[in-house]
Design goal:
40% helix; alpha/beta; 9 strands; Carbamate kinase; 9 helices; 235 residues; nine-stranded mixed beta sheet
Length: 235
């Protein structure tokens, strides 16, 4: 495997599957099986999951919710998803711990870098829920922050698309995919990969970013084996 420790960012929307909301046990099971195979190869894994399948703070703000309350509801949604993934992993025989950025024992242990690293060294997959614990920050930013903190070799952004394109491939049939691209080129082209706070955190802390399609079974292993199936963003 090309990497020894990874931070995997999973999309909340992807967890919803074909239903478009809630949690699909089929998607959850597929993710758990993929993650298990990678863990068995010896890679240490930290995971951050979005909450968009349950509640997204910005959507709430658009419907009259106070933004801070909306974001807090979104943080709780990420913890629900984290518990669901932990359960799916444990049913596959994989050791997993949920750490939360907001104190809520016994649901999850309070997050710290030291605890995350200690559990990973013991062979646990560490799922970090609750975002950054602050409003106005996305789970992409939480992923970048946790990836930097746990000293991951790469941040893997598992999405429903197979990489970064020159334009939106669903709208522009002439769009072409990048195998590799620099952070600066993403900025200059105005490509929307994730929010700028998260993206800048990765760039300034030299954390490479891989965008790939997590919904195709086996892709996680292929990315970690060095196959060019996604897009690598680096300095």
């Amino acid at each position: 495997m090309e990497y020894k420790r990874i931070l995997l960012k999973l999309s909340g929307e992807s967890l919803a599957g074909a239903e478009g909301r809630g949690i699909s046990t089929e998607v959850l099971g597929s993710y758990a099986k993929q993650i298990k195979r990678v863990a068995e190869s010896g890679v240490q894994i930290g995971i951050v999951i979005g909450g968009g399948n349950i509640f997204r703070g910005l959507q709430g703000a658009g419907k009259g919710f106070d933004r801070v309350k909306g974001d807090q509801m979104g943080m709780l949604a990420t913890i629900i998803n984290s518990l669901a993934l932990q359960s799916a992993l444990e049913s596959e025989g994989v050791k997993a711990k949920v750490l939360t950025s907001i104190r809520m024992e016994p649901i999850g242990e309070y997050y710290s870098k030291a605890a995350a690293l200690e559990y990973m060294e013991q062979g646990y997959i560490v799922i970090i829920g609750g975002g950054t614990s602050n409003p106005y920050f996305s789970t992409d930013t939480a992923s970048a922050l946790r990836g930097i903190e746990i000293e991951a070799d790469v941040m893997l952004k598992g999405t429903r698309v197979d990489g970064i394109y020159t334009a939106d491939p669903e709208k522009d049939p002439t769009a072409t995919k990048f195998d590799e691209i620099t952070f600066d080129e993403v900025y200059s082209r105005g490509l929307k990969i994730m929010d700028l706070t998260a993206f800048t955190l990765c760039k300034e802390n030299k954390l490479p970013l891989m965008v790939f399609d997590m919904d195709t079974p086996g892709n996680l292993e292929k990315v970690l084996a060095g196959e060019k199936i996604g897009t690598l963003v680096k300095l």
